[in-house]
Amino acid sequence: MSSSPPAETIQAIFNRIAPVYNQFNDGLSFGMHRVWKQMAVSWSNAAAGDTCLDLCCGSGDLARLLAQRVGATGQVYGLDFSTELLAIAHQQTQQRVQPLSITWVEGDALNLPFEANTFDAVTMGYGLRNVVDIPASLRELHRVLKPGATAAILDFHRPRSVAVQAFQQWYLDTLVVPMAARFGMREEYAYIAPSLERFPIGSQQVRLAQSVGFGEVVHYAIAGGMMGILVATKPQ
Asked: Is residue 141 part of a domain?
């Protein structure tokens, strides 16, 4: 299993893909990523008036869903290390008719700029696979969650079925990378396959979350096992 690229390399990739990030997510998932993100927000147990964090927020889809759920009395923070994606997240939120209470923060998932026991819920979409130290990231998530609070982490997943594995590889090789190539971003999206090879499968994610202190932990395989949501609750 190959090692993860340096954080600076991954950061540069996300800065470069920022202008097409939303378009690619819609096109390559046939819009289903929005359903999966709704599932993650639901499993985070965020509620009206809560203070929530969307970690590795990208262009802000999950942060905006959280903000709608917590309402005017709640507060959402969206954190990412990509300046370009944060700019798009801010711009798209400003364009909404209904204002949302979101604070955008440029920061490091391995060293969160928040006090312990701050958040009632945390979401993370397609970020855990890209951090250079998964246990350290989960440890930071655990630290900033309030006791009894839940994190819901959406990401790609390696399916158990050999047939679905073959489809997933075909999808990446035949649809994702060629589409990216048309925008001059072949290398940026070719990065997905090796990152997925390095990424722990669901049962391994559960054990990693438990090892840093999470109590109840479940991994839900969705989209035929090609995607997954890790739901981890901090003990009271």
From this structure: yes
Asked if the model's pLDDT at residue 218 lies above 80, the reply is yes
Residue 81 maps to a domain = yes
The H-or-E segment that residue 67 falls in is: helix 61-70
**CATH code for the domain in which residue 46 is found:** 3.40.50.150
Tell me how far apart the alpha carbons of residues 96 and 184 are, in angstroms, rounded to a whole number: 30
- What is the predicted pLDDT for the residue at 149? 98
The number of domains in the chain is 1
User: What tokens appear for 1 in the block?
Assistant: 């299993």
* Dist CA 12 CA 10 (whole Å): 5
pLDDT(19) > 90: no
Q: Is residue 174 part of a domain?
A: no
Higher-pLDDT residue of 55 and 223 is 55
Residue 82's nearest CA partner among 14, 161, 36, 173 is 14
170 against 219, higher pLDDT = 219
Residues 6 or more apart whose CB falls under 8 angstroms from that of 68 comprise 100
Distance separating alpha carbons of residues 4 and 129, to the nearest angstrom: 9
Q: Which residue has the higher pLDDT, 194 or 42?
A: 42
Residue 170 within a domain: no
Name the nearest CA neighbour of 74 among 91, 98, 53. 53
Range of the domain at 35: 7-156+200-233
Cα torsion 158, 160, 164, 169 to 10°: value is: 30
* Mean pLDDT, rounded, of the chain: 88
Question: What would the pLDDT profile of 86-96 be if each residue is shown by its tens digit?
Answer: 999 998 888 87
List the one residue out of 120, 12, 115, 102 whose CA is nearest residue 57: 102
